[in-house]
Every structure is written in structure tokens, then in C-alpha cells.
Amino acid sequence: MVAQNIAFWTIALVMITAAMSVVTTRNVVRAALSLVIVLAGVAAQYILLAAEFTAVVQVLVYIGAVIVLFLFGIMLTRARIGHESDLDHSNRVPAFIVSGALFVLLVALLRDAFGGIHIPDSAPSTTGQVGDAIFSTYLVPFEIASVLLLAALVGAIVLARRD
Amino acid sequence: MLLNQFLFLAAFLFATGVYGVLARKNGVLVLMSIELILNAVNLNLVAFGAFNQTVTGQIFALFVIAIAAAEVGVGLAIVLLIYRNRRSVDLTGIDALKG
User: Fold this and answer.
1) Which residues of B touch A50 (CB under 8 A)?
2) Is 0.90 exceeded by the ipTM?
3) Residue A90 falls inside a structural domain
4) In terms of domains, do A2 and A72 share one?
5) Which is the most buried residue in A100, A140, A142, B30, by most CB within 10 A?
6) Are residues A76 and A143 in the same domain?
7) Does A107 touch chain B if contact means CB atoms closer than 8 Å?
């Protein structure tokens, strides 16, 4: 239990630092690489929660595909590699107030609703259980998701190709 | 482990993502902030799944990951079109619908 908590707070600290770097850095490529740290941290938290299949999918899809897509986007929109001065709005202060108020509100609500509740220790959910649930109870949403991915793929190609 | 420590971490990621969406004006960086928000939601889903001892939370997280991949594909295509038409990805310049 103690080891799990040490692991949690270590990873959480790294994630918090990296997430703040994503939204404040003046360098677009550094923002993308900080996002990698946040996404890897989320995958590590999934492993702490004994959800190993979701962790693997997180690494494959996010770090393997989405980040590469972001780097392509940065390259194709010819962002400068290095410091850039006009990445932020002038309304940074209202944005900070809004997000800070949101965080305080969420923490107050969660403390009220789930204070002191522990996650029970149990056998980790196996990949087999996840597969069984996807291909029985959630079969229709799964098929719809695959059709949605196809539609999004075709849509992205239609939008991005040059005529 | 407390359930709340995961929920607090997810709340922080969510608030950071909201700050990024509001404060950034580069289109690619706004999409990155949206990824932060979606990951906060996924962390919540998996934490509640572990709390309830079911795999349902994980499966919803998998669906959110699939939707997020589709969203990034289409979103970056749109940002690319904006860049091609305006030679910049500055989102404050896109005010053609402003009266």
C-alpha cells in the first residue's frame, strides 16, 4: 500500500509538472514532448489501477500515433523550432481564474462526495475479461466506434488533400 | 490507495487542459490541451472501474481513446486547412462570423 502510494505521488508530480509545461511553454515541439510525459504518466497510473490492457492501448494509440500526428501537424504548419512569442492570448489572467476556480470547485465536490473511500485490493482485471465484455455486452458500440474511425479517416483525407 | 487521489489528479489535468484551451491561440496547442482534458476523463473512468471492481470503466476509456484518435485526425486536418488558407494557425484571426 505504501509502495503504491509512493509510486502514485512520484508519477503524479512528474505529470503535474509536464502538464503545466504543455500549457505554458513557448516552444511548440517542447509542448508536444511534455505531452508525451503526461500520457506515459497516465499509462503508469492505469497500471497502478491494475488496468494493464488500457495502459498498453494508451501507449500504442497516444504515444505511438497521436503524438506522431501532432509532430506532423507542427511540421506542416511550419511552427518554428524554438521560442515563439505569439502562442498565448492576451486573456491569460481570465483563463487562469476560470481554470483555477474549476479546479477548486472540483476538489471541493470530490472531497465532499468521495472523501476517505479506498479502492479495494483485488485481483487485476485480465485482458480476457476486457475482451469478453467488448465482444458481448459492448459489441454494438464497438462496431459503431470502428465505423466512426473509418468515417473520421476518410473525412481527414478529404479535408487535407490538395486538389 | 484512496479513490480521491486519482480523482484530484484528474481534476488537475482537466483544469490545466481548460486553461490551455482558453489561453492558447495556436491551433495545434489547443488540440494538445483537449488531449489533456480527454486523458483526465479516462483516468476518472478507470479509477471508478477499479473502485467498482468491473471492467466497464476500462471499456469506456477504450472508447474515449478511439474517439480521441478520430478527433485528433479530423482536428489536425482542419488546422492544416486553416494554415493553407491563411498562412497561420492563429485562432484569433478566424473571426469571419463576427458581426
Assistant:
1) 50
2) yes
3) no
4) yes
5) B30
6) no
7) yes
User: Where does a domain end: A83, A112, A142?
Assistant: A83
Across A72-81, A125-134, A139-148, least confident range? A72-81
SS (H, E, C) chain A: CHHHHHHHHHHHHHHHHHHHHHHHCCCHHHHHHHHHHHHHHHHHHHHHCCCHHHHHHHHHHHHHHHHHHHHHHHHHCCCCCCCCCCCECCCHHHHHHHHHHHHHHHHHHHHHHHCCCECCCCCCCCHHHHHHHHHCCCHHHHHHHHHHHHHHHHHHHHHHCCC
pTM (2 decimals)? 0.92
CB B50, CB A127: distance < 8 Å = no
Give the mean pLDDT of B36-50: 95
Please report residues of B whose CB lies closer than 8 A to that of A1. 1
Q: Residue B96 carries which DSSP code?
A: T
Contacts of A79 (CB under 8 A, 6+ apart): A28, A29, B26, B28, B89
Check whether residue A63 and residue A138 sit in a common domain: no
C-beta atoms of A31 and B32 within 8 A:
yes
DSSP structure string for B42-90 = HHHHHHHHHHHT-SHHHHHHHHHHHHHHHHHHHHHHHHHHHHHHHSS-B
For domain B3-86, which CATH number applies: 1.10.287.3510, 3.40.720.10, 3.10.310.30, 3.40.50.720? Answer: 1.10.287.3510
The CATH number of the domain holding residue A58 is 1.20.120.1200
Distance CA B25, CA A90 (A): 9
Where in the sequence is the domain holding A42, given as residue range(s)?
1-83
Domains of chain A: total: 2
Cβ of A54 within 8 Å of Cβ of B61? The answer is yes
